[in-house]
Amino acid sequence: MSRDRSLDIAVTGLAARFPGATDLAEWWSALVAGRVLTRRHTRGELLDAGMPRSLLDDPDFVPVHGHLDDADRFENTLFRVSPREAEMMDPQHRLMLEVAWGALEDAGCRPGDTSVTGVFASASSSGYLRAMVAGGGLDPLTLEDALHGTEPDFMASLLSYKLGLTGPAVAVQTACSSSLVAVHLAVQALLNGDCDQALVVGAGIAHPQGGHLHVPGGIHSAAGACRPFDESADGVVAGSGVACVVLRRLDDALADGPEPYGVVLGTAINNDGASKAGYYAPSVDGQEAVIRAALAAADVDGGSLGYLEAHATGTRVGDPIEWTAASAALGGTGAGPGTIAVGALKANTGHLDNAAGVASLIKALLVVKEGVVPPVAGFTRLNPLLETEDSPLYVPAEAREWRGPLPRRAGISSFGVGGTNAHVVIEQAPPVRAAETGGEEESGRLFLLSAADPEALARSARRLGTHLRREEPALADAAFTLAAARAELPVRLAVAGRTGAEIAERLASGEGVVRDEVTTGGLPAPALFLFPGQGSQYPGMARPFAEALPGFEDALRDCLAAFDPATAGVVRRALLDETFPATELEATELAQPALFAVEYAASVALRALGVTPAAVAGHSLGEITAACVSGALDLADAARLVTVRGRAMADCPPGAMLAVGCDEASLRTLLAESGPELELAAHNAPESCVVAGTEDAVEAFRTRLGDGVPTKRLRTSHAFHSALVEPALAPLSAALAGITLRRPVLPFTANTTGELVPAGARITADRFVAQARGTVRFAEAMEALARRFPGAVAVEIGPGRVLSALAVAAGLTPVALSPARTARPGEEVLTALGTLWAKGLPLAPTALSGPGRRVHLPGYAFAGPRWTAPEARPREAALPEAAGRTPDTASVNGPLPDVPPAEEATAAEDPATVLAGLWADLLGHTGLSADADFFDLGGDSLATTHLARRIKVRLGVSVSLRDLLIGRTLGRQTEIVLGLLDRPVVRS
Questions:
Q1: For 41-45, 189-193, 288-292, which range has the lowest pLDDT when averaged over its residues?
Q2: Helix (H) or strand (E) holding 411
Q3: Which among 378, 590, 628, 636 is least surrounded, fewest beta carbons within 10 Å?
Q4: Type and span of the H or E element at 527
Q5: Do 606 and 795 contact (CB within 8 A), yes or no?
């Protein structure tokens, strides 16, 4: 009977920072290799970190920690955090923001998108805040800022605010089990409909990162190694880390998300209550119950599991209790002897405190995803205290392939100090469509990448290139994921290519990559559309747009429908067939309708992508396109006008045109000396003009100028904008008589004057007659646009880049949409679109990338500046050594508190009096009798650990924790101490 999967939850995104690894791939490799990732610090490192010399000199201090490199770095600019605010934030909160961002990207979700995303966050107590308070530099207002930047009450809401998330924001604090409890709460929120996506993030980062004090019988390792379930296990080692997962309902994730890492089948939480030895002690009953409850919620039995990621602190008491509880729960629900491999992440990284639960979940997800069971790092032989007979558990000493049942399932346990237990049951993700590998796409794809600063963009580009080479994702999926699942940040990059390897090579070399930076906080630069005139046409000139400009083919079809069928058919062939005879397309009656059609259709497509022009301009024939786009002409009238115009001009006497590289005044002097057969046809730029006339006159003029003035013959059959085209004016006037001219909704430039015709102006028919005959004042038009729209981006829409050079001369920033005839014309258009996006024009990235499926890609490459508040920096005067204070023991990943100020006991001081005073300090009771019971007075195992430490400090003897726990009365503990001091016991 199959399970009901309607309550299953997919894990769609992961991100983490763990000791000893730069990314999750490196971390997983280290786990599979069984590497220990904790680090033994040097004395110099610890002094630099601000740890007191007196602590480092203590023989019981163990300088080992799962050190998290660069824990003080933070990309504050990305999150709109000021430098001072960044200093005052706990490093845990900073890195929670970064891993949350990364996990959302990995889940194929753009931070701040419209889905209802909940946040369930947990962090360890703030050593950073304690450092600031201890330094004494916080005034009341600064203290308030410090509390908001470090206290756990504010972290979930801070994440929601900075990431634009609108679901529930909940801080979860149950000590070591916090982040796995958060997973349970997130699952419930998803099933209850409180959110559509949930972010679970946990952090445990010590400040400073150093080591611990070992107390005999305590939870910390004397050897500085965490060895869960091992015969040599002697306690835990702390570590620092931060981890995040993104959860969605499975059906939703399979519909449009990337391939899940795994599926959460069931979760459970409970508390031990009072049925245990003490508040800090674990409970077999509580742990067994929570595992059974999670299996029941998942609707699976223990026999279906092949792996258990245990809480596994490596303590002599905790490990046997956990082993017994798990064995009973799993064996009692169907697991056979020796069938479930046990994992213990703390053996690799140390105890990550509030991040431990979600870190263990990530490890277990990779186990069921990859089908590889890592060894327990450093494991030698099984702890003899473990009840192994008929236990379903075994400890792998080396990496091995999955041997358990299928589908691969695992359990994860996390138990908090005080007794809040959590267990999660997961399964490998169901199969999705077969992943496509990176083949070649004929028209290529556009990759868009952005960051908050150039350095971060360069790092992200390198990571993406490496991933494309190594993983070879489908090109369409990779391009779509970057467009759909990444924020649009100010520093941008775009590159087109046909294969992932080609994209990677271009990212590495910079060839074909466009880069730009968008001004933050302002409006995008205004866009101007420029439409070229006759002479730029070539067969197949619409092919690049058809291949790469979304919406172009539909727009072209609609445009051609406005022409008579015969004209539309030949125009379509000329535009899309590269083998169409060039000589036929040079004929004016075909060239002008063809240019209009490609320009108009491309402008419609570009506007549909989100680019709305502030104004439009056209050169010669291009002014007809500009007028149509501006709204002065409707499409049908414009099509009829360009058809009549082309035919009428084709019937004019032949002629020629010559581009001349000199200013207008000089050219007019030269023309005056050459006779009336030549005219100034166009003033294109300050040093660029065009003359027109008969073939003989133009050629004679060119010969006369020789090498003294740059010249170039234009590919035209007629002398446009000269007396030779006057026979066309009457047919044009007749055609315009039947056309209704409208007031434009966009400004456009007039060729005859170069002036900007404002939106709403009255347009008369004689304008389009005069512009066919008069001089084209395009230089003046560009100057008018530059004055009216400073900083504008001039988009040349049509074949070639002739007008782009003229825009540069006017001080505008040009982008030619199809700049050159290359072997890959579609890539030219993609690159131009990417250039517009990089400049900040509002193009929809997913429209540029084309369709695809979200896949896992490298996310933002964080490596921000280092931030430490002056108030938190080490100060010699504030160190315990200088204040006459001696460090005591500490929690797993917490502070190293001092004992109250006191002088060492003198030889004459009565040990019984000292011990009674220590009881009074720890419990708050005075006037105690010899039969006073430490635990009846409110003491517990942690207080007993403190007592043992203080006895050593005051009296110089080490008392085992076991002896103090057994000898619970003041009288018996006094006897133990006196015995160790070799002093006689005085009994009343």
A1: 41-45
A2: strand 409-415
A3: 636
A4: strand 527-531
A5: yes
The answer to whether 983 and 911 are in contact (CB under 8 A) is yes
* Both tokens assigned to 628: 């149509």
Point out the residues that are catalytic. 176, 311, 351, 620
User: What number is the average pLDDT over the span 204-221?
Assistant: 91
Q: With contact defined as beta carbons under 8 Å apart, do 820 and 828 qualify?
A: yes
Distance CA 154, CA 620 (A): 63
- 688-693/678-685 β-pairing: antiparallel
Sequence-distant (≥ 6) Cβ neighbours of residue 890 within 8 angstroms: 212, 213, 896, 897
* Residue 538, pLDDT above cutoff 50: yes
**Strand partners of residue 816:** 796
Under 8 Å between Cβ of 538 and 581? no
297-331 b/e (C-beta count within 10 Å ≥ 16 → b):
bbebebbbbbbbbbbbbbbebbbbbbbbbbbbbbb
User: What is the average per-residue pLDDT within 137-156?
Assistant: 85
Whole-number average pLDDT of the chain: 92
Please give the Cα distance from 760 to 771 (Å, whole number): 20
Residue 390: both structure tokens together: 């008929």
d(CA 321, CA 327): 10
> Is the confidence at residue 490, as pLDDT, over 60?
yes
φ, ψ (nearest 5 deg) of residue 262: 175, 180
DSSP, collapsed to helix, strand or coil, labels residue 307 as strand
Q: What is the pLDDT of residue 985?
A: 63
Distance CA 65, CA 42 (A): 11
Mean pLDDT, range 203-225, rounded to an integer: 92
pLDDT, position 940: 80
Q: Are strands 212-213 and 61-62 parallel, antiparallel or unpaired?
A: antiparallel
Residue 904: how many other CB atoms lie within 10 Å: 10
Provide the pLDDT confidence category of residue 681 given band limits of 50, 70 and 90. Answer: very high
Question: What are the backbone angles phi and psi of residue 470, rounded to the nearest 5°?
Answer: -80, -45
pLDDT digit string (tens) for 373-429? 999 999 999 999 999 999 999 999 999 999 999 999 999 999 998 889 999 999 999
The rounded distance, in Å, linking the Cα atoms of 280 and 288 is: 17
Contact 101, 160 (CB under 8 A): no
Contact (CB, 8 A) for 828 and 819: yes
Q: What is the pLDDT of residues 871-906, one digit of tens each?
A: 998 865 333 332 332 333 333 444 444 344 344 444
Query: Which candidate, 431, 424, 164, places its Cα nearest to that of 310?
Result: 424
Residue pair 655/724 in contact by the 8 Å Cβ criterion: yes
Angle between helices 475-484 and 500-509 (to 10 degrees): 60
d(CA 773, CA 699) in angstroms, rounded, equals: 21
